[in-house]
Fold:
Amino acid sequence: MDTFKEMQTRGHEQVLFSHDPSCGYFGIIAIHDTTLGPALGGTRVWAYQSTEEALQDVLRLSRGMTYKSAVAGLNLGGGKAVIIADPKRRDRESLFRAHGRFVETLGGRYITAEDVGTSPIDMEFVRRETKHVAGLLNLSGDPSPVTGYGVYVGMKACAKQRWGKDSLAGKTVAVQGAGKVAYYLMTHLKNEGANLVATDIDQDKVKRVVEELGAKAVAPDAIYDVKADIFAPCALGAIINDDTLKRLKVEIVAGGANNQLAEPRHGVELESKGVLYAPDYVINGGGVVNVFGELQGWTMERAKRKAQEIYDTLLRVFAIASRDGIPSFEAADRLAEERIRSVAALKRMWIAGDR
Structure:
């Protein structure tokens, strides 16, 4: 893998590596774009099989954060961090304090937060070494409630676009993943009267949504074959691919997972099949809204009000797609890029003291 070529292709500003042998820390931070503000993005802990696999992930995720913040109307750029480690590792303080020292070297160009494999407690360890961290205990903490709510209102926008009204009552939603975001999403769907089909590799999580929310459980691989109105990917990415596309029996794909399309062509193929796709970084933007709210001192309710804007943003994306004759994922990119370009083009005013 040619790292510089990948950076050039994706438009990254910086990619940094760090190693602390005292605790076995191996971390990568990728800063994609800081036109709109400091790069915000969570820290993911995963047992990557290789450095190349970790690098590919952090590059994809950081670029997605730039676009996510841009379409959400936030004054933030995009970044991401990954730590190559077992996410269930028990001795976490030294690992995350080492990570905090790495974040601190960037002087605020990158702000980290919780992500897959991390928790608000881990962010407290990071906070001991740097102030450039969010998702802390007793502040915004876990972003899942706001993220799940944002996916829910985005799903209603999809219903409005496809069926002319945004009610989800009586609709069948097949949810892949039963983790925190999916749980909050399914809670809202249940309250509106939707029918739930759910799966997860963790059977305890599946049991919870079956018992508490009345979901029907299916095997992990069987979720693609469920006949439903909406498929909601809420696990890891690249699940819209050559295999799954042939199996989906839905009218809408709208979920909380990042990087749902294995390749851009799969978004084109969804379009050709007549399936409405909610671009992932638009519909799951509630998480970054939640973190931004913490940085601004917002309450949870204010963060949720901001996340409600996902509804109108998705309708704008669908309008651009219809107007320009392009797939929805390209329309979302166009909306994000237009905002970044407009801010980048602003002229700097002279300030007293300039020389």
User: Anything to note?
Assistant: The radius of gyration is 20 Å.
